[in-house]
Amino acid sequence: MKKAQLLAAAILAAAMFSVQANGSSRPGWLNDAVFYQIYPSSFQDSDGNGIGDIPGIISRLDYIRSLGVTAIWINPIYVSGWTDGGYDVIDFYRVDPRFGTNTDLVTLTKEAHERGIKVVLDLVAGHSSDKCEWFLQSREAENLRYSDYYIWPSFKPEDDSEGKVLDYAAMVSSKAGLLRKFVPTDAPRGPYYIKNFFDTQPALNFGFADPDPAHPWEQAVDDPGPMAMRRELKNIMAFWMDKGVDGFRVDMASSLVKNDPDKAATIALWNEDLSVWFNLEYPEGVLIAEWFNPEEATRAGFDLDFFCHEGTYNYSTLFFNTDRMSGKPKDCYFSLEGKGELRTWYDLYMKQYSAVKGEGYVCMPSGNHDFTRLAAGDRTSEDQLKIAMSFFLTMPGVPFIYYGDEIGLKNISGLPSVEGAGNRTGTRIPMLWDSTENAGFSTAPKDRLYIPQDPDPGRRTVESQEKNETSLLNYVRALLTLRRNHPALGNNGDWKLLSDPDKPYPMIYEREYEGEKCLVVLNPTSKTVNAPFPYYKSEDLSVIGGSYNSCTIKKIRRVDTMFISPVSVVIYKVK
Ligand code: GLC
Fold first, then answer.
1. 17 pLDDT exceeds 70?
2. 252: which DSSP letter?
3. Rounded Cα–Cα distance for residues 344 and 161 (Å)
């Protein structure tokens, strides 16, 4: 008895230590990690069926290493119903046959590790496919093993918000958001289940923040059903970690506990249980949130979170030059026209950056499988893309390069939806490797390719970019070398905007780490721009990177002013 109590106290102390030391217990390899995101259906096909697979990824590991990245994140590879690009999982413990086998995945991790590359999987934590065995059982009227893995409302409460547009945060957490996720069904368990995204994605039952006694389907987070669900999730994580993977990007991580508007219960679920458990079991494992609010995600025990496209947060004002729904042009910061503004992004970013500094990372990916690619609309020239990539790869946090962005793979708009991608189809296009059939992606007939490729005969490929010393691909490699060699430009270096956020062009920021200082000056527009620059003299600065014609400091009415040529970026080291 005494022994058991001692053990319990030791476990609790260890857990508390891990919670308090959240920042410092972060895996050390994140300090200089750079990720490459792979959408597996579109990367490399090895068996000629027109769809990418795991052996295909293995065959490209040397290329991935040549970029200078240290980790890959692969979108879901589990057995799926394929109504949402793999995010509708049928079997969480098995690789979908179209990608290969579990053994292939183990081989991938071994081969990647031999090249110094970590492998991170997507963990679809919040929902399954409606074809998953758990759901098929849960639909039945009898009480079976998986009955409580899902949520079965017996009636639909009044929705007074019908018709109002809800942002991402409201969709995943408010009562109004939840009511829109009631799916009518003829299941014996009937008459509704709760979904997360598409109707084919029933939400898993992690409980409700504040169960309403008038709604008998709302179980508490520590009721037996939600507790069993948690154990299952840990089991899935342990299953793949024990096969050698290095962590997870957790899909819709903020959505687990329902009716949780301030996220307190979801944060507690992670930080008091799931993340603590994971950190103790796998201290070198990484947990990446898809939360879009790094401040909350860090409190939940995640090592990093994305700051990109969703809701009222993130960087849409910097990069979105194409309306997501209509495909029409839109003003943004990184454009030739120079009609963008910086203030919206700056305020949001500073809030998140200051909140998580030293504890977690705010990560701005070059793109992902859910929104329009960087090379879209009127931002497709290599010079323009070099400016944007310079920004991504000289900011703090862990960089993520979406496959193909290193060669400026172009977004293709107007493609028919593939496997639930909708208007995201054009961002998931197959990689362009070389000048052979289907650009080396697949030996399948053209009409059998997963998604059609860019038909432009002048399209950029890895092969053509390799041959050109000044290509975007070689520029991206040089940027990553620079980042590695200058800790000030790295994941942990401080960041400070020196230019005025209300006078957006040029953007000038300083990076600093343990006494080293670097400076980045960016002008994405087609005009020469200038900004007061009282900080350093020309002789204090030495150029260490960039893509530009000229960048000079001149006196204008006795004020030192930095002038930078059109579509230019300069990276300096401060002497
Ligand atoms: C995440 C994924 C997205 C998917 C959704 C539902 O946002 O990134 O692709 O459709 O979750 O699982």
1. no
2. T
3. 27
Q: Which domains does the chain have, with CATH numbers?
A: 3-125+224-483 (3.20.20.80), 494-574 (2.60.40.1180)
Strand locations in 237-298, DSSP E? 247-251, 286-289
User: Helix 382-392 crosses helix 472-485 at what angle (to 10 degrees)?
Assistant: 20
Maximum alpha-carbon separation in the chain: 83
451 CA distance to ligand 1 centroid (A)?
Answer: 18
Please provide residue 526's backbone torsions phi and psi, each rounded to the nearest 5 degrees: -90, 10
Q: Is the separation of the CB atoms in 356 and 294 below 8 Å?
A: yes
Q: Of 86, 95, 126, 77, nearest to 232 (Cα)? A: 126
- Ligand 1 centroid, distance to 252 Cα (angstroms): 7
Tell me how far CA of residue 147 lies from CA of 168, 181, 201, 204, in angstroms. 29, 19, 16, 11
Tell which atom from ligand 1 comes closest to the C-alpha of 197: 6
Best CA proximity match to 192, nearest among 205, 173, 204, 179: 179
Cβ neighbours of 11 (radius 10 Å): 12
For the cut 80, the answer to whether the pLDDT of residue 411 exceeds it is yes
Ligand 1 center from residue 315 Cα (angstroms): 18
C-alpha distances in Å from residue 162, one per residue of 167, 181, 202, 223, 260: 14, 12, 21, 31, 19
Q: What integer is the mean pLDDT of 79-104?
A: 98
CA distances from residue 143 to 52, 147, 188, 233, 398 in whole angstroms, order as listed: 41, 6, 12, 21, 46
Mean pLDDT for the stretch of residues 327-341: 92
324 to 327, 376, 431, 573: CA distances (angstroms): 6, 11, 22, 38
Neighbouring residues of 106: CB distance < 8 A, sequence distance ≥ 6: 243, 244
For residue 234, what is the enclosing H or E element? helix 224-241
Distance of CA 445 to the CA centre of its chain: 32
Contact 341, 504 (CB under 8 A): yes
With a cut of 50, say whether residue 67 has pLDDT above it. Answer: yes
Residues with CB under 6 A from ligand 1: 84-85, 87, 197, 251-252, 290, 369-370
Q: Mean pLDDT in the chain? A: 94
Instruction: Report which of residues 443 and 313 the model is more confident about.
Output: 443
Question: Which residue's CA is minimally distant from atom 4 of ligand 1?
Answer: 87
Query: Is the distance from CB of 361 to CB of 397 less than 8 angstroms?
Result: yes
Higher pLDDT: 323 or 337? It is: 337
pLDDT, position 568? 98
CB-based contact 448:438 (threshold 8 Å) = no
- How many A from CA of 87 to the centre of ligand 1? 6
Instruction: For residue 369, give the ligand 1 atom closest to its CA.
Output: 9
Least confident of 121-135, 204-218, 316-330: 316-330
CA–centroid distance, residue 310 to ligand 1 (Å): 11
**Rounded distance between C-alpha atoms, residue 353 and residue 341, angstroms:** 19
> Which tens digits make up the pLDDT trace of 102-144?
999 999 999 999 999 999 999 999 999 999 999 999 999 999 9
Taking the C-alpha atoms of 402, 407, 413 and 418 in order, what is their torsion angle to the nearest 10 degrees?
A: -50
Q: Which range among 100-104, 112-116, 328-332, 395-399 shows the weakest confidence by mean pLDDT?
A: 328-332
Looking at residue 511, its amino acid is: R
